[in-house]
Design brief:
The complex is a heterodimer of chains A (67) and B (140).
Chain A (H helix, E strand, L loop, with lengths): L1 E2 L1 H7 L4 H8 L3 H9 L6 H11 L3 H4 E2 L6
Antiparallel strand pairs in A: 1-2
Helix pairs in contact in A: 2-3
Chain B lengths: L1 H26 L5 H30 L2 H12 L1 H32 L2 H28 L1
Classes of the chains: A mainly alpha (67), B mainly alpha (140).
């Protein structure tokens, strides 16, 4: 699963720490999410998508074989 | 009330640990070996737990509200929780392998009581896992 968190965050001019504060996780979690090392839970995915005003599918991109 | 206990319990445990240690030293040879070992062991265990709790509380008092918030967040952070769970899962297997190795060593050495003891530990180790699997299966 890939995601567009880094692109959306940069488009808003936010730092990783600011995004982490906004969705109540550590900066390390944002770093891991952006690098694709960690997949967010449904709850965190929902929080992040809502923060950016997008749907989960717009932020998190599922590969066909994962579905 | 809970807070009072949280603050006084480590100090009380440390006092008991010191008391046990001093008693074991003062009584010396008047105590038989198992009782002396028990006193020193209990004193060490209680002292260690109490000191770690007191030191943690001391450091926590020095935290700024921002640091406290960061520590709370790090404690609840879902990635950190996942890391802790994976580490605990891996540790369970490592402990099992270690117990099996100890079991084999006791078999090679032909010792009766240690073999029985390690066997019981292996059974308990697996039993606790099964009990907790059942508990979590009912909750989730």
């Amino acid at each position: 699963m890939t995601n567009r968190i880094a692109a959306l965050r940069k488009a808003r001019g936010l730092s990783q720490a600011e995004l982490a504060d906004a969705v109540d996780v550590t900066r390390q979690t944002i770093i891991s999410l952006e690098s694709g090392r960690y997949n967010a839970s449904l709850l965190l995915a929902h929080k992040i998508a809502r923060f950016f005003g997008r749907t989960i599918e717009e932020v998190f991109l599922f590969e066909e074989e994962e579905l | 009330m809970k807070d009072v206990w949280k603050k006084t319990l480590p100090a009380l445990a440390l006092a008991v640990a010191v008391g046990l240690g001093v008693a074991a030293v003062v009584l010396g040879d008047r105590l038989d070996r198992p009782m002396s070992g028990l006193c020193f062991g209990a004193a060490g265990m209680l002292g260690g737990l109490a000191c770690s709790r007191l030191l943690t509380a001391h450091w926590e008092r020095k935290w700024t509200p921002e640091q406290r918030r960061e520590m709370d967040r790090a404690e609840r952070d879902e990635r950190n929780v996942a890391i802790r769970e994976k580490a605990a899962h891996t540790s369970w297997y490592w402990t099992l392998y270690l117990l099996w190795a100890a079991f084999l060593v006791t078999l090679v050495l032909g010792s009766g009581f240690p073999t029985a003891l390690v066997s019981v530990l292996i059974v308990l180790h697996c039993l606790f896992l099964m009990v907790n699997l059942g508990r979590w299966a009912r909750r989730m």
